[in-house]
Amino acid sequence: MKYARLSKEQFEELHQEFINFLASQSITGDEWEDIKINKPEVAEEELDIFSDLVWEGVLNQARFLEHFSPNQIYLFKITETTLNLIAIKVENEQVDVTTRQGYNWLQQNLMDDRVSLYTSAKAVSDDRNKDIFALVQQGAVITKGELYEFFEKHLNL
């Protein structure tokens, strides 16, 4: 398995897609029930293969990631060759940017001396999707990039 198995909730959400996946392998509903009971290792393998296919599709489409912690925000823009970062660090113990109140404080105090903005870029490895997945595993969320683009525009990148 290249990525991680989907959760039960994710499988439930992708129920029809999983049925189509099984059908593409000529596995009927009755055959699937039989496999689950009599060949659980094969069923596990099919779940893993499907999970990897779903992850691969999602990661192929990913262009932006966001990761929030109480005093930092990491915004990523992913191209075919680079992973660009805008990092915002708040050095005010009373502010937690993961809360609405803390985020509002950041918006109103972006130019405050206790707010630092950093940018960085690094080359994507040979396995771009694995790089993205590693960030997702650390808590980053795939987004449409509005926040990255806001800061990109204001930092004149």
Structure description:
With 157 residues, the protein is an alpha+beta fold. The chain folds into two domains: 8-61; 64-154, no CATH class. Helices cover 48% and strands 22% of the residues. The chain contains seven helices and five strands; from the N terminus they run H-H-H-H-E-E-E-H-E-H-E-H. It has helices at residues 8-13, 15-24, 29-38, 40-61, 100-108, 128-137, 146-154; strands at 64-69, 72-78, 82-90, 115-123, 141-143. It has a five-stranded antiparallel β-sheet with strand order 4-3-2-1-5, with helices on both faces. Helix 3 (29-38) crosses helix 4 and helix 4 (40-61) crosses helix 6.
Write the layout of secondary structure elements.
Layout (H helix, E strand, L loop, with lengths): L7 H6 L1 H10 L4 H10 L1 H22 L2 E6 L2 E7 L3 E9 L9 H9 L6 E9 L4 H10 L3 E3 L2 H9 L3
Antiparallel strand pairs: 1-2, 1-5, 2-3, 3-4
Helix pairs in contact: 3-4, 4-6
Provide the helix percentage.
40-55%
| First and last CA, distance | 38 Å
The stretches of 5 or more residues where confidence is low (pLDDT under 50) are none
Percentage of β-strand residues = 15-25%
Largest sheet properties: 5 strands, antiparallel
Strand order of the largest sheet: 4-3-2-1-5
Dominant shape: elongated
Q: Average pLDDT, to the nearest integer?
A: 93
**Cα-based radius of gyration, to the nearest Å:** 20 Å
User: Oligomeric form of this entry?
Assistant: single chain
Q: What count of structural domains?
A: 2
Helix/strand/pairing class, anyone? alpha+beta
The string of secondary-structure elements, in order, is HHHHEEEHEHEH
Q: Please, how many helices? A: 7
Give the beta-strand count: 5
